Amino acid sequence: MDSHRPGDEPRSLADVSTPGRVAAPDEAISHEELALAARNHGLPLEALRYDVTPPGLHYVLVHYDIPPADADTWTLTVGGHVRTPLALDLAALRALPPVTHRVTMECAGNGRARLTPRPVSQPWLVEAVGTADWTGVPLRTLLAEAGVEQDAVEAVFTGADHGVERGVEQDYRRSLPLANATASDPEVLVAYAMNGAPLPPQHGHPLRLVVPGWYGMAHVKWLHDITLTDTPFTGFQQAVAYRYRQASDEPGDPVTRIAPRALMIPPGFPDFMTRTRVVRPGPLRLEGRAWSGRAPVTQVEISTDDGHSWEAAALSPPDGHAWSWRHWHADWTATAGPHTLTARATDAEGTAQPLTQPWNRGGFGNNLVQRVPVVCL
After folding, report:
1. Is residue 10 scored above 80 in pLDDT?
2. Where are any strands of DSSP class E within 168-251?
3. What is the pLDDT of residue 6?
4. Could you tell me if 279 and 267 are in contact, meaning their C-beta atoms sit under 8 angstroms apart?
5. Is there a contact between 197 and 132 (Cβ–Cβ < 8 Å)?
6. What is the rounded CA–CA span in Å between residue 292 and residue 104?
7. Residue 7 — pLDDT band, cuts 50, 70, 90?
8. Given phi > 0 = left and psi -120 to 50 = alpha, else beta, which region is 144?
9. Most CB atoms closer than 10 Å: which of 100, 124, 285, 296?
10. Which of 9-13, 85-89, 123-127, 185-189 shows the lowest mean pLDDT across its residues?
11. Is the dihedral of CA 35, 40, 42, 47 positive or negative?
12. Is the pLDDT of residue 8 over 80?
């Protein structure tokens, strides 16, 4: 039987694509949020032990659908305010001198589900991160070949993924100021390989952008067009989404670089449902990773009493990968009873992770310290 009543049928995109909102105080995670969580996935925190994240464990966020992509027929166009428009297939891109950068990538919404009140969207906890070796062609090489016109101010990147968001039908599209697009450090890549192999479909096969130090929304996947413009880009993903706002009616500030964060490899072994960790009494090494897209991480501190006291952890020496996470470790003697373990990163600008939530309507950039409940038995 048809359960629809007259007048219930969607009449426009706005009827099937609702505005952004904040959950009511006692509102549970919705089926829609669970569906997003099933489509996307985070890094299992025990995988922080890898210097380079295996592709299947690296976090994934797909806004719309993974588009069909044939590497044999894929073309990247470079146009707009350039002297010589380009149309490059994969063979032409691979013929250019390749570079590889190890980059830690984090979703801008990482930590969203831990905010109160909760912005309704992909319900990340702390696991939306990964580090990979990305290989490709520097964006500045392609722009130099195309010849940037003097009036160009931004580069706009278009992916092949298509959908609707808050009533706006769109291809996924983001931009970078020209100064960022042509910088040598960090050097933006048009990447075709991840960890030495072709990009997996969920990571943008056959081409994606990699913007070291920036949150994941800037790393446009399934990249097929770069257009230089003489005015700032005002598309949905730039001017509407990915803004730090306290209220829905304010323009907000753009989400750009990654705030400092430290994560701990959960020690011991977990309870299946609660993920509470069980450890044994005695000496125990705590370890994890720390990163920042704003300035190098210079300090990691740990607390074993839920932030009441702190001690410095040992940071691994710089390894030449300026835009990758760093390993840290500290020794702890576990004693019987419950404990809450915490890690906190500070970068060279003096910015430390907060101990209270940095709330905003979109749930972006929540780098509140991680808390790991442990029971020592």
Report:
1. no
2. 168-177, 189-194, 197-198, 208-210, 223-229, 243-244
3. 52
4. yes
5. no
6. 9
7. low
8. alpha
9. 124
10. 9-13
11. positive
12. no
Amino acid at 173: R
CA distance 125 to 114: 6
> If pLDDT is split at 50, 70 and 90, which confidence band does 3 have?
very low
Kindly report the backbone phi and psi dihedral angles of residue 236, in degrees, each rounded to the nearest multiple of 5, phi listed first: -55, -50
Asked if residue 10 has a cis previous peptide bond (ω within 30° of 0), the answer is: no
Q: Are 315 and 329 in contact (CB under 8 A)?
A: no
**DSSP per-residue letters across 325-369:** -EEEEEEEEE-SEEEEEEEEEEETTS-B--SS----TT--S--PP
Single out the residue of 205, 200, 242, 249 nearest to residue 223, CA to CA: 205
Confidence band of 9 (pLDDT split at 50, 70, 90) = confident
Distance CA 364, CA 115 (A): 10
Give the span between the Cα atoms of 7 and 151, in whole angstroms.
Answer: 50
Who contacts 221 (Cβ-Cβ below 8 Å, separation ≥6)?
62, 159, 161, 172, 203, 204, 208, 209
β-pair type (311-312, 297-303): antiparallel
Cβ atoms of 33 and 21 within 8 Å: the answer is no
The structural domains of the chain, ordered by start, are 13-254 (3.90.420.10), 261-376 (2.60.40.650)
Please calculate the CA angle 303-307-311 and round it to the nearest 5 degrees.
Answer: 35
In the block, tokens 């930590």 appear at 111
Confidence at residue 1, expressed as pLDDT on a 0 to 100 scale? 40
**279 CB-near residues (< 8 Å, 6+ apart):** 267, 268, 334, 374, 375, 376, 377
For every residue of 251-317, which 3-state class applies, written as one string? CCEECCECCCEEEECCCCEECCCCCCEEECCEEEEEEEEEECCCCCEEEEEEECECCCCCEECEECC
**Cα end-to-end span (Å), the chain:** 57
Burial of 310 from C-beta contacts in 10 A (0-12 / 13-18 / 19+): middle
